[in-house]
Write a structure and sequence with these properties.
The chain is mainly alpha-helical. The chain has helices at residues 10-28, 44-52, 72-81, 104-119, 127-132; strands spanning 34-35, 56-57, 62-63, 89-90. The strands form 2 sheets. It has a two-stranded parallel ribbon. The longest helix is centred in the first third of the chain and has 19 residues, at 10-28. The two termini are 25 Å apart.
C-alpha cells in the first residue's frame, strides 16, 4: 500500500512491507532491494525494519509532482528544475493514490527528461547501477 509506514506501529509496518515484497517477488520473480517510503517519511524504527528485510532506503533529489493533474511538459519542467549529475528523480508509475486520472502524463514526460539528460551528457540509470555499479 501507499501508507505512511512511519506512522504505523512497527509490526503493522513490517507486515505491510513484507506483504508488498512478497507480492512483487511473485509478480516479477525478483525481490526488491530498494524502498522509497511514501511521502519520503521514515523513522528509526522503519529504517531498522527495512534493514531486517534487506531493503535500502531510497530518496530523491528531483521530482515531477506527477501525483497532481498536470501535463507532461510541466512534469518534465519540475523534474528537471533540480536535476543534475547524481540526481534521483521521483516519478510515479500509477495514479492509484493520486489526484490524477492516469499516469499517462508521466509516461509522456520521460522522453523529455531523457532528452534533457542526454543534452547534459548524462545517462539515466537505475539505482542499482548508480550506487552499486551492477544490473543485479
Amino acid at each position: 500500500t501507499h501508507r505512511r509506514h512511519d506512522r504505523l506501529g512497527a509490526e503493522e509496518a513490517r507486515r505491510d512491507l513484507s506483504q508488498g515484497l512478497e507480492a512483487i517477488e511473485r509478480a516479477a520473480g525478483r525481490r526488491p532491494r530498494w524502498y522509497r517510503p511514501p511521502y519520503g517519511a521514515s523513522s528509526p524504527a522503519l529504517a531498522a525494519i527495512c534493514s531486517d528485510l534487506g531493503l535500502r532506503l531510497a530518496y530523491w533529489s528531483a521530482w515531477g509532482q506527477d501525483w497532481e493533474e498536470i501535463a507532461a511538459d510541466e512534469i518534465a519542467r519540475l523534474a528537471l528544475r533540480d536535476f543534475g549529475a547524481g540526481s534521483v528523480i521521483l516519478l510515479h508509475d500509477s495514479a492509484l493514490y493520486a489526484e490524477r486520472e492516469s499516469a499517462q502524463p508521466t509516461v509522456e514526460a520521460i522522453p523529455i527528461v531523457a532528452g534533457a539528460a542526454r543534452d547534459l551528457g548524462l545517462d539515466l540509470v537505475s539505482l542499482a547501477i548508480a550506487l552499486d555499479g551492477s544490473y543485479d
